[in-house]
Amino acid sequence: MAVTKGEQVRRRLLTAAAELIGERGWSAVSTRILAEHAGVSASVVHYHFPSIQAVLSEAAVTAMREVLETSQQVFAVATSPADGVDALLASVDQYSGTDPMSRLFVETYLAAGRDPELRDRIAGLVTAFRTQITDWLAAHQVADPAASAAILAAAVDGLLLHRSLGPLDDQVGAVLRRVVIPCE
Amino acid sequence: MAVTKGEQVRRRLLTAAAELIGERGWSAVSTRILAEHAGVSASVVHYHFPSIQAVLSEAAVTAMREVLETSQQVFAVATSPADGVDALLASVDQYSGTDPMSRLFVETYLAAGRDPELRDRIAGLVTAFRTQITDWLAAHQVADPAASAAILAAAVDGLLLHRSLGPLDDQVGAVLRRVVIPCE
DNA sequence: GTTCGACCTGTACGATCGCCCTGATTCTAG
DNA sequence: CTAGAATCAGGGCGATCGTACAGGTCGAAC
Predict the structure, then answer these.
(1) Is the CB of A52 under 7 A from strand D?
(2) Per residue in A107-153, pLDDT tens?
(3) Which residues of B touch A153 (CB under 8 A)?
(4) Domains contained in chain A, CATH given
(5) CB-CB neighbors (< 8 A) of A89 in chain B
(6) A31 vs A21: CA distance, rounded Å
């Protein structure tokens, strides 16, 4: 069989960990909670992973990579810079700011500040995402593509953060489109 | 005496809590760690506060209110929308993204998602801050002042989040200035 | 000088934490 | 069919958690 039984359990642990990071917070995910949520015994966690931090890190990096990769694909179909911003915001719209995935992103940013190895992996993911946007903006004659991409990426995370506190203005899309202006 | 001995200890606990939230993370601040950091015995915490969550919430709200109030004062001296954005970014520049205050903001956003009462208090602070910026932008004939203020506030938090992963592009200030365009 | 309240210390309780170890079970190669 | 590897359950260890409580110290009011 291609996927062994143990590999299935390992994946269940990772998906459960990703959910729990968002729901309970990074440092509130314990071995027993994680095991119960994945439907296994507590000691199975330490059979598949060396430590709790290792599970959380791998789960977070995997989940973030998937989201970022699908998120940067929305730019491929956009035909103009304004379309690209709209598509980016639309793809973000499925996250309410209070859902596990949104919170996993922020939790992981914070955890990365306390774990240098995790920090490097996350920085790599975000840099790759930002580079992808930079290239796309440059190809569409946007001025200062690198800084514009940095603002767009930061705005997305910031909007998620603020949206968890309450609804946002309808016109944020129109305003964010101002960021991408053509070269003179 | 105006400030009693007990009040001094209470304040030491609050400032220590604010630091520890940023350094260790919200849910990793324990009674004993907090007491040790404030130079008091462990049970003093529960003499001045009903629970650990209460200390953390009050410390976070107090710290955030101070920062937001001083931060919105930088707009008062700015004479143009572009100046305002520059002043905002400059006032944010003193926070590296890895310092306790930056991290306290994000930690508190996340904690607010798990505590409705804290959420309301934080939402009030952020809304007041955003309203202040909105009024200032409107007074300076910026189009869509409310949405522009939302983008600016979100960008500030997002930039802090991303700056903790690595240095940012030099031109983010120039790009962010594009957000504030005059009414047609 | 005594009383009283504010303030603090030390200790204790039950719960939970990460991690380890020992056996049982299940699967697979030979 | 069997031996061995892979996988899992259960229990236990020392540490730490939040909180409660009983007693001690100390300054101020009377």
Answers:
(1) no
(2) 999 999 999 999 999 999 999 999 999 999 999 999 999 999 999 99
(3) 158, 162
(4) 5-179 (1.10.357.10)
(5) none
(6) 12
